[in-house]
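*** Fold description ***
***
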Amino acid sequence: MQLVIFDIDGTLTNTYKVDEDCFKRAFALEFGIFGVHTNWSEYSYTTDSGITQEIFKEKLKRLPSDEELVRIKARFVSLLQEAYINNQDLFSGIPGSANVLAKLQLYPDWCVAIATGGWRESAKLKLQKANLEIEGIPLASANDALSREDIIKTAIIKAENLYQVEKFQKVVFVGDGVWDVKAAYRLNIAFIGIGDKKLTNVGATKVIKDFTKLEDFLKILQSAEIPRFL
């Protein structure tokens, strides 16, 4: 049995921009924190939980309390909901993503999971607004761990438990960020890039624009390799 794990923002959903905008606004509105640095790859952990910790340490010289984490998540989700009401086009799915999720669940040799650097609450909202059906698909998020690698590990464990697989013969991570390539390399798992060819510059060997050609994606799944992170 083999496992394919999908990232969300920029991979399954075209929500990268609205996510970034609402994330920054949440800090400004909830805590009066402005000037959040948005070159996410420069943070120690490119996840909502990791970035939040780093912002608090930089701006307030301390870690956030549990109550403050609840507040920032709630504000973030509220802003995403408001953005959807104002412009539903900000929450579109990557072409073919709904079909690939549905079809892969019918293939006997492949199991499906989701691993996102976002928080679970916002992740589920974005998937719902993009009309992606994830019922029955294990999901790991920034609620589970700080690092992307640990989130992916959690997704694998959740998938092993749900699908009752002792160990997957092959694991393929599908993502759109440089940090996704890096995580796959560190975990020694195969990787497929989504988007433009820039990911090949950092070691990805397979990069596709989207999921519109399902049969092509399935072939690439079989031949996907561990990235050579540069």
Summary: The chain has a mean pLDDT of 95. The chain has two domains: 2-14+93-223, 16-89.
